[in-house]
């Protein structure tokens, strides 16, 4: 196991920054996901840790040792790329054994370590196959085994499942989590998939435009987003523009108690925190469509200001298209200038209903 320390790392390209003043500590055995949209700097940060990009400023330390300027082959890191990067004219065994051969290990030791690595990733009988004979998922397992066989202190994974189908991606991420937990290896995992990050991470680093927006465990990221960007990027979030006056936030279709200073505000409400009741008001929200996911239903509602929001309901819910509805809210967030200024997890539905016609 190892501890990774990143101090004020920057990477500039011309006049702009791909990564700008990022500092992060990753503890022994921790799995941290770098999450963000394309261009957020997450892969550039990972490549700097692996030695494939040179930082413009800052330091990278592993167990207190400065590795900032070491080449990749001299770092105690193993990197798995999205593209697999396997040699197609070699067998699976030879691909995995390559790094061990460079270290001039005895043949018997190489064979033992490669066989152990193959067994670890579920490919015990695949050593003599050519990589071109493998499926995409099997090739990614070989790439993972090739990194793990070198026993790195830090494992780096750069969107390794992005090219795979949904079911295979879910199965492989579960396998990677099991292997990582069993080995206790410190791991950084780059992804733009929120579901992947929520399923894998001990902590999530949400990145945007080269900076860290928030660093926290998955449940905190989801339930207590610090910024409007994080709230919208993790999970599904409804955003409504409202005006606060005398401790009350007012929208054409919704009124909520909000003890902050008067002025405009953005309300953030999760679909599962909303409920619907039929309404006879001619200007109430109107059901646009209902999507059945089996375990639950998602109802699209068109509000009077043109906003479309989503409400989660049980599997037996009924909401015909065109039905007028009133909105109930059990929890919400409030944002100003992109930052969260208020959050509640208390049940406000009864209060909201009593205020809805105020």
UniProtKB/TrEMBL annotation:
Presence of keyword Transferase: no
The record's annotation in SUPFAM superfamilies points to: MOP-like, P-loop containing nucleoside triphosphate hydrolases
Output the superkingdom of the source species: Bacteria
> Where in the numbering of this chain does the ABC transporter domain appear?
4-234
Keyword ATP-binding carried by entry: yes
| UniProtKB keywords | ATP-binding, Nucleotide-binding, Transport
Q: Which GO terms describe its molecular function?
A: ATP binding; ATP hydrolysis activity
PROSITE patterns in alphabetical order: ABC_TRANSPORTER_1 (PS00211), ABC_TRANSPORTER_2 (PS50893)
Per its UniProt record, what Pfam families does this chain match? Answer: ABC_tran (PF00005), OB_MalK (PF17912)
GO terms, biological process = quaternary ammonium group transport
Family the entry assigns: Belongs to the ABC transporter superfamily.
PANTHER family, alphabetically? SPERMIDINE/PUTRESCINE IMPORT ATP-BINDING PROTEIN POTA, SPERMIDINE_PUTRESCINE IMPORT ATP-BINDING PROTEIN POTA
Q: What is this protein called?
A: ABC transporter
């Amino acid at each position: 196991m190892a501890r990774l320390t990143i101090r004020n790392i920057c990477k500039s390209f011309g006049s702009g920054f791909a990564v700008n003043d990022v500092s992060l500590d990753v503890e022994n055995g921790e799995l941290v996901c770098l999450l963000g949209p394309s261009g957020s700097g997450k892969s550039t940060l990972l490549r700097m840790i692996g030695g494939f990009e040179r930082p413009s400023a800052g330091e990278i330390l592993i167990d207190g040792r400065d590795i900032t300027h070491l080449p990749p082959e001299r770092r105690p890191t193993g990197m798995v790329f999205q593209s697999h990067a396997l040699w197609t004219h070699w067998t699976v065994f030879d691909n995995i054994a390559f790094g061990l051969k460079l270290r001039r290990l005895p043949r018997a030791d190489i064979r033992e370590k490669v066989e152990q690595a193959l067994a670890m990733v579920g490919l015990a009988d695949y050593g003599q196959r050519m990589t071109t004979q493998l499926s995409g998922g099997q090739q990614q397992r070989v790439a993972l085994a090739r990194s793990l066989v070198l026993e790195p202190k830090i494992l780096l994974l750069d969107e390794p499942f992005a090219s795979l189908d949904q079911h295979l991606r879910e199965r492989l991420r579960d396998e990677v989590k099991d292997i990582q937990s069993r080995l206790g290896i410190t791991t950084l995992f780059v992804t733009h998939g929120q579901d992947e990050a929520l399923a894998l991470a001990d902590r999530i680093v949400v990145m945007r435009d080269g900076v860290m927006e928030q660093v926290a465990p998955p449940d905190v990221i989801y339930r207590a987003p610090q910024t409007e960007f994080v709230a919208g990027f993790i999970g599904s979030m409804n955003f409504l523009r409202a005006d606060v006056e005398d401790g009350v936030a007012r929208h054409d279709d919704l009124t909520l108690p909000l003890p902050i200073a008067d002025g405009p505000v953005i309300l953030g409400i999760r679909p599962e925190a909303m409920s619907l009741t039929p309404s006879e008001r001619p200007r109430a929200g109107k059901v646009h469509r209902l999507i059945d996911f089996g375990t639950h239903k998602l109802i699209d509602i068109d509000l009077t200001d043109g906003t479309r929001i989503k409400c989660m309901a049980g599997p037996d819910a009924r909401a015909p298209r065109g039905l007028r509805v009133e909105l109930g809210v059990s929890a919400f967030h409030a944002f100003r200038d992109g930052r969260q200024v208020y959050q509640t997890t208390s049940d406000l539905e009864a209060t909201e209903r009593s205020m809805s016609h105020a």
